[in-house]
DNA sequence: CCACTATTATGACTAGGTCCTAATAGTAAT
DNA sequence: ATTACTATTAGGACCTAGTCATAATAGTGG
């Protein structure tokens, strides 16, 4: 049996909070009701339409990035992004990324840069790493700039395969093949 | 006199970068040209339409919470350590470890816990990860406690192989085989 | 069966575009 | 001045993801 109105509306609310980038049409399908019902629900719950929701999220981001633009440390700065195709990010290795004894970058920072890039390049609301084979081909020292290049190389079943190569001055320092899980079918 | 095409396009580009939430209509007014001219300009410069720009900004927010991740400090607390044999660490997954949409832990945190444990268990001054095969077998949610167990399983040439399994309540959530490089020969 | 709520359908209209075709303006070279 | 070319403007058809209003139909409890 279909959900009662109240239940549906609760789930609807949760769903939109989780994944605000969802259209009424998709919602209608998942709840197996008409679009109009979804719209009445949104009206009653005073949930704005998709485009307003997106704007809201974007606005938050905009305000934040204006404030928190110190791009320095983190997991790299994305300098190029073509969804479902390729992405490039830069990470400057600093004191805090390395073992103090030998100034060599700790592996998980290189991994984090590559992994987050693999997530970002996926043109989907939900992308998770399922598994990966990774190679640390050369130690990276503090002061070096790592450029990670991610490219989508294919799809097997529900998985998207992303290859990431990270370079310091055209020398490969990290390689990884990431098998990414994505919720919905890939958009052509 | 009105700006020449080239000048206008440069300014247009700047303007859209600065304030991506601007419609063609507003742009047309500020440059005192027709909407169609603006659209031709965007076409030539391959600048997407407003709604796509907004989505992109929003998407960044979603995909790349990158911008303030405190990966550096918390990689788990070591609770047991027998050099060259096994090690155990605990990591409590908190808000800052997860994607905000779905509360699923970002992969690199699980990796960081496992990788740093693999480094720690090696009884040597210098241990680096050479390569690894890793599997994220179950999503981990905020609030869950991840217990990682690393065990040294063997040596091939100059490498030490460490297996790490991470659990939430006796359920495996992450598995990895880490091939570690070490400077000196292993002490028997 | 009636009353009431819930759901679905339909049509008109909107913003902010795309894509295509066609007409007009402006300028530079012969 | 005439030709050639680029730049600009205009128009129409179409798109998505909605809004708002009206009306018809389904389903359920008393």
From TrEMBL, chains A, B:
GO terms in the biological process aspect are: fatty acid biosynthetic process; negative regulation of DNA-templated transcription; negative regulation of fatty acid biosynthetic process
CDD domains named among the record's database cross-references: hot_dog (cd03440)
Q: Which InterPro entries match?
A: DeoR_HTH (IPR001034), HotDog_dom_sf (IPR029069), Thioestr_dom (IPR006683), Transcription_factor_FapR (IPR017275), WH-like_DNA-bd_sf (IPR036388), WH_DNA-bd_sf (IPR036390)
Which of UniProt's keywords are assigned here?
DNA-binding, Fatty acid biosynthesis, Fatty acid metabolism, Lipid biosynthesis, Lipid metabolism, Repressor, Transcription, Transcription regulation
Thioesterase domain residues: 116-165
Q: Where is the HTH deoR-type domain?
A: 8-46
Establish whether keyword Cytoplasm is in the entry: no
Any one GO MF annotation of this record: DNA-binding transcription factor activity
Q: Which HAMAP family match?
A: Transcrip_fact_FapR
> Which family does the record claim for this protein?
Belongs to the FapR family.
- Its biological purpose: Transcriptional factor involved in regulation of membrane lipid biosynthesis by repressing genes involved in fatty acid and phospholipid metabolism.
Q: What is this protein called?
A: Transcription factor FapR
Q: Which species does the entry assign this protein to?
A: Aquisalibacillus elongatus
Q: Which gene encodes it?
A: fapR
């Amino acid at each position: 049996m279909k959900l009662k109105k109240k239940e549906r509306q609760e789930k609807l609310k949760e769903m939109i909070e989780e994944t605000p980038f969802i259209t009424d049409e998709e919602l209608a399908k998942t709840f197996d009701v008409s679009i109009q019902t979804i719209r009445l629900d949104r009206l009653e719950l005073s949930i704005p339409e998709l485009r307003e929701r997106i704007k809201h999220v974007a606005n938050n981001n905009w305000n934040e990035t204006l404030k928190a633009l110190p791009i320095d440390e983190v997991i790299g700065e994305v300098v190029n992004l073509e969804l479902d195709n390729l992405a490039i990010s830069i990470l400057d290795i600093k004191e805090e990324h390395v073992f103090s004894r030998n100034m060599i970058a700790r592996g998980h920072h290189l991994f984090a840069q590559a992994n987050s890039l693999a997530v970002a390049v996926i043109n989907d609301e939900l992308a998770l790493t399922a598994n990966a084979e990774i190679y640390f081909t050369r130690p990276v020292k503090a002061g070096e700039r790592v450029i990670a290049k991610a490219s989508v190389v294919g799809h097997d079943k529900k998985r998207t395969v992303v290859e990431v190569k990270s370079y310091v001055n055209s020398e490969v320092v990290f390689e990884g093949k990431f098998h990414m899980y994505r919720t919905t079918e890939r958009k052509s």
